[in-house]
Predict the 3D structure of the following.
Amino acid sequence: MEVRDNQRFLSLYYQPGVVEMATGQVDPFTRTEPQRTGRGSAKSLGQVFTPPEIADILARWVVSREPGTILDPAVGLGHLLHQCWLLHASAEYLGVERDPHTFKEAVQCAPPKTKLICGDYLRLDAGWFDGIIANPPYVKAHHLDFGESDWRYFEERFGTHLDRLTNLYGLFLLKIWEDLAPGGRASVIVPAEFLNANFGTEIKERLVRSVRPAGIAVFDPRHNVFDQALTTSCVLFLEKGRPQGAAIHSVRARSVEDVRSFLEDLLAERPHPNAKGGSLYLNLAAHAPGEKWLNQILMPAQSKGHSLPRVVGDYFRCLRGIATGANNYFCLTPAELAAHGLGRQHCEPCITKATDVDGLIFTERKFAELVKQDRRCFLLNPQQVDEAVGAYLALGEKQGVRDRYLPSHRPVWYLPENRGPADIWVGVFSRESVKFILNETNTRNLTCFHGLYGKRDYRAHRLLMTLFLNSSAGRRSFFEVNRFYGDGLHKLEPKDVEAMPCPEMPSLSEQELDQLFERMLALDRLENGQRQGAIDQMLPELLAVRF
């Protein structure tokens, strides 16, 4: 193993609780970690258990060249090193673990004679390792206690600019590459969100410019690898020293077996047509780092090659919904209004849950139905403090609502954000299909929806955009920008919505608009499947869209 500063990790001194030699007395796959809550819990540390079948795939890539040294930079109990050891026991093993409690357990569970170091891998000066295997901690940037000096340290160390929203696993990925010896192989399983997220642009640029992974396998969002984390996962197969022009092959894996087949192709150096799927692997090296790689890998085949001249952002601004910081206090049902002596003059009509609305158009009649069902559909927004409002505000102070984060940071703690009624509501989370609903009322919305606000007061834009977004062409546009989470969950951010491709929005006469709205009211009464088919038949006469 080549090293830095004339040091070898594997020859470091021993110190109980800091540097120890594992005994391998316990199989880590049979060991259950003690349940801890709070700051030291596995969740707070970003620790997730790697299933045995995934560990086996990661290990087979790492040991394929019979490495002399193997590192796990986030060793946990030693599951991944144990799997490597079963396949290649003659290597020297090193594990790094930051959490002292987990480190103590790892002394018994990691492969025998594994050197274990209790410390922060990102701060350690490692040598070069022939093999590295990792399931890095999943901790989002806003939970990291890094200051600006820390970020500058990492930028200097990794030689790249870093978005301050970079997840912890992104930093691990960059350092793993730095610590991989020439000709060495590393396998890393991480959330796939960096392939789409803004913070991942610098990481993807590094992948294209210098890392050149041999392959990236992305699990289908409906296949949840980790029970403890609702996220789409991907496996990166790295190899130090691949040619600059080498392809970065990627595949959508609907099962663990798909990843295993992909691995076999990589090991055999035949990343050509998939024997099972019959389709070519996507070469990510041919795509710009700023593109949404995840969508290009996971997008249904019929959505590829879709081209439209405009984007939604040409016509609308997209803003997130109103965040209250205490929905159960600020959002009331009609019965609660009456119980506290409050009237509708003290509130704004508001959608608080996505399940409260459906269909193509939200009308006053539909809001009246919510009131009749005693739904939580009124948002506190008093223009003056009378006796009833004063009593309710006193209740909020007594309950500690005033001191919560969002209320305490508002100019007036009980007044909501100044966000008017949106023209079109856009569902933030979805599974089968996302909701795009024309809002024909004065109703606001909470964060369950984003809101589209027309840049010009053109009714034609509102009606036609609603129809387009609910068409099959709109669904294809959605798949070009959406974010994939685990268990088949999709998410849209406001900037994603504005980036959705769309057709040119033409002008319509008042008579044409009235006729179109009547047709949309008829469509609203149809079931979702029937509605999309009917819209697809309508749009060619209204917009330059082919189906």
Summary: The mean pLDDT is 87. The first strand starts at residue 19 and ends at 21.
